[in-house]
Design brief:
about 140 residues, alpha/beta, 2,3-Dihydroxybiphenyl 1,2-Dioxygenase, domain 1, 4-stranded mixed beta sheet, 3 helices, about 35% strand
């Protein structure tokens, strides 16, 4: 599927499994963060929407304005952190490299070897979503 040209209805019908959608005040800023820090790819990037790809996994960014009539928008706080309590793992991304690309003030967990067999680091997006880069320990 060509994510740059697929129609919204064809894209929607193609989705299966678990879907992740993040509401954001600034789609471009969140997409840039995900690209610069984690090397993820953004498709169909506009002020209102982006498809984010990490390997075979897709998730979506929607601007707040696209959810104007959705009841969820009324639950979103005006200021960050928006995603308190949610953690998004990005498996296969080197946590040391991600930290080197991140704003040091946004690193809430440095790269650490964990007892469950992963080396991981957690970095907050500008709006407070927690993203964890993780690779298996040797």
């Amino acid at each position: 599927m060509d994510y740059e040209t697929v129609s919204p209805d064809a894209f929607g019908r193609s989705l299966t499994g678990l879907g992740v959608n993040l509401l954001t005040a600034d789609v471009g800023r969140l997409a840039a963060f995900l690209s610069e820090v984690f090397g993820l790819t953004a498709h169909r990037l506009s002020a209102d929407f982006a498809i984010i790809r990490h390997g075979d996994t897709l998730f979506q960014l929607h601007s707040d304005s696209t959810f104007g009539s959705h009841p969820l928008l009324g639950l979103v706080p005006e200021t960050p952190p928006r995603g308190a309590g949610a953690q998004f793992y990005l498996f296969g991304i080197n946590p040391d490299a991600a930290i080197a690309s991140a704003d040091p003030a946004m690193v809430i967990e440095p790269a650490t070897d964990k007892p469950h067999g992963l080396r991981e680091a957690t970095i907050l997006s500008p709006e407070g979503y927690a993203f964890t880069a993780a690779i298996p320990l040797p």
